[in-house]
């Protein structure tokens, strides 16, 4: 896992690597940075978190949770932060501590919106409600990354 402090600016001036989400309901991942390259994968899950690992013009090399890497046009991506619940059914709490009241559960694969992250906990939105989840239960943030 990467520390938030280990990221350097890319060609866009934004840090690399960084997390983004799919802005489109359908997005092609290509083998290279251009439409002339073959489609490697088509994603059909809007708001899916992806990690940008490189930039070339308007193209971004992205990696998904499973480690698949390829190139997407920047217009298909959003700076809105989301995360993917991992590792089975997870508890979401009213406060950022495990002794707090569990207010809902989310199954592995559910996408949550990131509202705020402390070093060990993230406040997320899901189904119109907000709750806290342990950072180890999601994919889409860096270790110790603070999100305000």
From TrEMBL:
InterPro entries with a match to the protein in the record: DUF1058, SH3-like_bac-type
Stretches assigned to the SH3b domain: 17-80
Protein name per the record: SH3b domain-containing protein
């Amino acid at each position: 896992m990467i520390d938030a402090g280990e990221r350097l600016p890319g060609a866009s001036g934004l840090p690399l690597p960084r997390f983004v989400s799919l802005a489109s309901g359908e997005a092609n991942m290509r083998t290279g940075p251009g439409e002339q390259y073959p489609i490697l994968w088509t994603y059909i899950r809007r708001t899916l978190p992806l990690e940008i690992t490189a930039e070339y013009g308007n193209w971004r090399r992205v990696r998904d949770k499973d480690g698949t890497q390829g190139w997407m046009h920047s217009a298909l991506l959003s700076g809105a932060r989301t995360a993917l619940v991992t590792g089975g059914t997870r508890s979401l709490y009213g406060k950022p501590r495990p002794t707090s009241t569990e207010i809902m559960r989310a199954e592995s694969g559910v996408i949550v919106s990131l509202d705020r992250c402390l070093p060990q906990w993230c406040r997320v939105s899901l189904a119109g409600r907000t709750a806290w989840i342990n950072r180890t239960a999601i994919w889409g943030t860096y270790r110790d990354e603070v999100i305000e």
